[in-house]
Amino acid sequence: MKRFVSIVVAGLLLMMTSAAMAASDGKGTKAEAKALVEKAIAYVKAHGKEKAFVEFSNPKGPFVKGDLYIFAVGFNGVFLAHGADPSLIGKNQLQSKNENVRLVTIGLIETAQKGGGWYNYKWPNPKTHVMQRKSSFIKKVDDSVFIGCGVYY
């Protein structure tokens, strides 16, 4: 019986250690992505778009957590903020020569215009630079801009 208890305890410790390691690897969850979007929307309402977009684009700010980051895009396709790739800010991705970027931007806009929700696509992970599947939660701020945050998987 003592040996059985030792094995069970060892198994539980291994499971807890594995869960802790998974949680600390910087990979965000869908629930965390959605919560970050809600936090970002509240920040826009409290502080205005201009201040919010600066804060969203700060890689060390409160809107970047592990591999989660906020992005803001105008319905015209121009990226207004991006927590992981500042080179996208100010670029109209509807005019991108990269077909994937153009199609993703169209899909994000359509999702926002339909009331928001989850949109699945492929996008380069800014940490690994590898094209990965991604699911982003999108929410409309107003008639000119939407905010998103996604998880890589």
TrEMBL record:
<dbReference type="InterPro" id="IPR033480">
    <property type="entry name" value="sCache_2"/>
</dbReference>
<protein>
    <recommendedName>
        <fullName>Single Cache domain-containing protein</fullName>
    </recommendedName>
</protein>
<feature type="domain" description="Single Cache">
    <location>
        <begin position="17"/>
        <end position="106"/>
    </location>
</feature>
<keyword id="KW-0472">Membrane</keyword>
<keyword id="KW-1133">Transmembrane helix</keyword>
<dbReference type="Pfam" id="PF17200">
    <property type="entry name" value="sCache_2"/>
</dbReference>
<feature type="signal peptide">
    <location>
        <begin position="1"/>
        <end position="22"/>
    </location>
</feature>
<keyword id="KW-1003">Cell membrane</keyword>
<keyword id="KW-0732">Signal</keyword>
<keyword id="KW-0812">Transmembrane</keyword>
